[in-house]
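We were asked to recover a plausible sequence for a given structure. The inputs and outputs are reproduced exactly as logged, with field labels preserved.

PROBLEM: sequence recovery
POSITIONS: 228
GIVEN STRUCTURE:
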């Protein structure tokens, strides 16, 4: 099983996320533009949070969900590209939209290669901004939902006994009952009993449901054939 990732460390934010407007972080050193963007976002039902530098933004903490960041590439101190890279490394769940001047398109493409979701050219057009923000927030909302599903599945796994968990892991590794019995030093019939009990606790009707649960926990979209 994979260890908890950054998005899974935000489980306590679920209820809060469902009860408030999505957050849009606006990192822009031009005060007039920053306020203009914030007003546009607020009028569209979002919660804008403005920062004049990358350092100010990072010092505030990146905790709101769902959220996205709108980052000007040319910032005082840490550049927008460096900020985008740092967010990609430390907060990969946060969708980033970069804002560029006419001479920065090549830099914007570099940001896309390291994880930025989109880039907008100045002067930013309201419709383009709203479309990009909506797509970014939808991306984070989906990631948040996947994290919620993983946590719910972990809670289900917590209901299993140590032996049932061992059987679950081996079933989802693709082993037959006889192979599991040999590995664990128990009878095939006992394996069947444990398997039936764990499937009941996990609300799994078929072996394929166990594979889907395991793959979701592992953060994989791959499929594996069930062997019974």
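RECOVERED SEQUENCE:
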């Amino acid at each position: 099983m994979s260890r908890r990732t950054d998005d899974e460390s935000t489980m306590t934010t679920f209820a809060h996320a469902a009860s408030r407007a999505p957050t849009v972080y606006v990192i822009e050193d031009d005060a007039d533009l920053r306020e203009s963007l914030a007003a546009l976002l607020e009028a569209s039902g979002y919660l804008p949070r403005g920062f004049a530098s990358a350092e100010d933004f990072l010092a505030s903490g990146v905790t709101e969900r769902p959220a996205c960041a709108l980052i000007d590439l040319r910032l005082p101190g840490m550049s927008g590209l460096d900020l985008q890279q740092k967010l990609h490394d430390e907060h990969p769940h946060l969708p980033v939209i970069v804002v560029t001047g006419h001479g920065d398109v090549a830099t914007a493409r570099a940001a896309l290669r390291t994880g930025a979701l989109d880039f907008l050219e100045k002067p930013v057009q309201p419709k383009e901004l709203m479309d990009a923000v909506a797509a970014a927030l939808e991306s984070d909302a989906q990631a948040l939902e996947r994290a919620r599903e993983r946590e719910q599945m972990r809670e289900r796994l917590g209901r299993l006994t140590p032996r049932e968990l061992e059987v679950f892991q081996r079933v989802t590794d693709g082993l037959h009952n006889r192979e599991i019995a040999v590995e664990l030093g128990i009878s095939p019939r006992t394996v069947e009993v444990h398997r039936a009990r764990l499937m009941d606790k996990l609300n799994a009707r078929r072996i394929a449901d166990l594979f889907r649960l395991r793959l979701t926990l592992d953060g994989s979209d791959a499929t594996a054939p069930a062997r019974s």
